[in-house]
Amino acid sequence: MSDTAANYLTFLGEMGKLKHIKRTGWVLRNVNDPETISGHMYRMAVMTFLLEDNNELNRTRCMELALLHDMAECIVGDLTPYCGVSKEEKHRREDEAMKTLKSLCHKQGERMYTLFQEYESQQTPEARFVKELDIIDMLAQAFEYEKSQHVDLSEFFDNNKYTFKFPLTKSLHEELISQRNQMSNHETSFKTNVTIKETNGTTNDGFQC
Predict the structure, then answer these.
(1) Of 30, 69, 165, 199, whose CB has the highest number of CB atoms within 10 Å?
(2) Using the 8-state DSSP alphabet, how is residue 54 labeled?
C-alpha cells in the first residue's frame, strides 16, 4: 500500500468518527437518540440544493463548506459554550485539528484547510450563508425533538440574536417559527421541561449544539 493511500485511509477513519459523535447540545439536554455531527453536516449540505439557480452564491462551494465546517470535531469533539472553552481556544484547537487532517490529504488537504479558514473568517457570502444554514439546522432539529419527544426547547427560539439575511434561510426560519407557533397553540404545554446536565464549564453568549 502506498503512503498516500495509507494516509487517506487514516483520514477516512477520522471522518468515520463523525458518524458516531453525538452533538453535545442535545446530549446535555437529555434528548433521546441525539443527532451526530455528520448527520448535522449532511443535512446542511442537502440544504444547498434548495438554492435558486439565479442566486449569486456558489452552490458547490456552499456545499463544500457545509460538509467540512465541523470536520475538526472528529479530533477535538463538539465544543459548545457549556464546555468552559473560550471562543479563541476553541478556534485554536479546531485549527490545529484541521492542520492534522490536512497533512493526511496532501494537495487535497490544502483545499479543505482553505475552505475551513474561509468559513471561520466569515468574510465571503458563501461562508455567511452556510453559517445561517448551521443555525437553521439547529432550530429545525430542536423543533423535531419538541414534536417527537414532547420536550420544551424554547430556549433556542427565545434567543433574538439570530438575523437571517439570505432569502432561503429567511423563508425557512419564518416557516419554522410559524409551524412551531401553530403547534404551541394546539398544546397547552410541552410534556417535559429540559434541564441541562451539570458540566464543569461556564456558559457564554449564544446557543450551540
Answers:
(1) 69
(2) T
DSSP calls for 38-49: HHHHHHHHHHGG
pLDDT tens-digit readout, 22-45: 999 999 999 999 999 999 999 999
- The C-alpha atoms of residue 92 and residue 26 are separated, in whole angstroms, by 24
- Return the DSSP state at 22: B
pLDDT in tens, 47-101: 999 999 888 999 999 999 999 999 999 999 888 767 788 889 999 999 999 999 9
Positive or negative torsion for Cα 32, 203, 76, 156: positive
Q: Is there a contact between 74 and 11 (Cβ–Cβ < 8 Å)?
A: no
Has this prediction a pTM greater than 0.90? Answer: no
Assigned domain for 46 exists: yes
Answer yes or no: is 206 within a domain.
Answer: no
Closest CA to 163 of 187, 128, 197: 128
